[in-house]
Amino acid sequence: DKFVKTMLPGLMKILDNVPDSVYRVCDLIVVVVGKYGEEWRDNCLSYILDETCLLINQVCTIYSAADQSTTSKSATGAKSSSSEIMDDEIESMIEDPAIRNAYIEQKFASRLLLFCLLFEEMQLPCAKIVNKSNLLDKLVSMLQVYTMSTSAIRT
């Protein structure tokens, strides 16, 4: 089915543009999983988890650049890192690094919330996929980078 093959990237674009649609997107995925089975479910969950992990890396880049620019009192580090994390046409059209970074953070929040909602609906399959990935390590690393960045800003 052609719709199902292109559905996930389309749903991610909807999430990017309308973050409040995350609950509806979750409901749609649950319904499609019921129709297309376990293999599609596992591919879907892996796709969302991979996107989430990529966004974690981007958020870490944002905050490590902010930490470096704060400690060195130079804004050049933040600008170069924000150009490295542009991976989508909307991001590339946003010239202000602060707005671009907020957009990336919103994408990350939407993906993570979607995965959490799907985890509630499909606990065992999600747990298996999380167990195979390094999601938890990446989240802890992101929190450490964020903590270091915010503590550097305060001092």
- Write the element-wise H/E pattern from the N-terminal end onward: HHHHHHH
Radius of gyration: 17 Å
User: So how many helices?
Assistant: 7
β-strand amount: under 5%
Query: What oligomeric arrangement do these chains adopt?
Result: single chain
Low-confidence segments, given as residue ranges, are 71-86
Distance between the amino and carboxyl termini: 56 Å
Class by SSE composition:
mainly alpha
**Structure summary, number of beta strands:** 0
Portion in helices:
over 70%
**Major beta sheet summary:** none
Mean pLDDT: 82
Overall geometry comes to globular
Structure overview:
The chain is mostly helical and 155 residues long. 88% of the residues lie in helices and 0% in strands. The protein contains seven helices and no strands. Helix 2 packs antiparallel against helix 3 (76-84), helix 2 packs across helix 5 (97-121) and helix 2 (22-72) packs across helix 7 (135-154). The longest helix has 51 residues, at 22-72. The termini are far apart. Residues 71-86 have low confidence and may be disordered.
